[in-house]
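User: Predict Radical SAM core domain-containing protein's structure from this.
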Amino acid sequence: MNVHEVKSIETKSILSRLKSKDNYWGIAYNMNLYRGCQHGCIYCDTRSSCYGVGDISHISVKKNALELLDHELGTKRGKATIGTGSMNDPYMPLEKQMKLTGGALEIIAKHRFPVHVITKSSLVTRDADVLQDIGRTYAAVSFTITTADDEMARKLEPNAPASSERFKAMKILSDRGIYTGVALMPVLPFINDSIEDIEEIVEKAAEAGASYVLPLFGVTLRRGSRDYFYDKVERIFPKMAKRYQTYFEDRSECISPNAPYLNEVFYRRIETLGISATMKFYHSEGRKQLSLF
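Assistant:
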């Protein structure tokens, strides 16, 4: 795995309140215990200049994260969902030894806050007990799966567990009664945007006990992430970068030209399989409540 030396840093806060209501993931706070990510996904939006993260292969561990989290949750008057996994994977390989995410979940359970974990890693099953405990308030685990083909996944997400391992982990969690599903995104135009790809993911998600599949039939390529993506994709799929440049020009939202057909197939399949295309969220109104947005 080609990553730089891991550094320890201190941070002033660990929970970042969202400025506006999140009607997609259902979270109110972002929690990033690490800076950077080891999975090396070629399409990662965190490389975008607008985030100011820089080279995401430089990993930093926020050594005072758990102390801050315990303090910050103790000062919150109302409960709202904490999300983790938007800027990096909370279960990247380093988590196996650092156990920051596991420790954070223990603190979240102590304070009875709801949580939504987004990951590509089967390591999340290590924390099934505490997730089950948090689930008495609200816990959701979304597995990002962009392809059901393990060989393709290794090309797009070289340091992440295989898609088949993610489906196995999903089954373990769903069998424990933990609310889980798939973030089917990004779907890369001209690469993994066939009807067969989408049908296979949905069917395997159903077999693994997924309650929902959240689709995005495209990819975001902004300044900072676009050049990296073009460089990597050209090495894996010769002439593909030129195809993107010709078709999408400088657009940051690159939606698959197959999107209308993929949507039609997707919604037909999830209806047949009894899977939702939206999540149930936590709402605090003096009591726990799950509601479709």
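The two ends are 40 Å apart (CA to CA).
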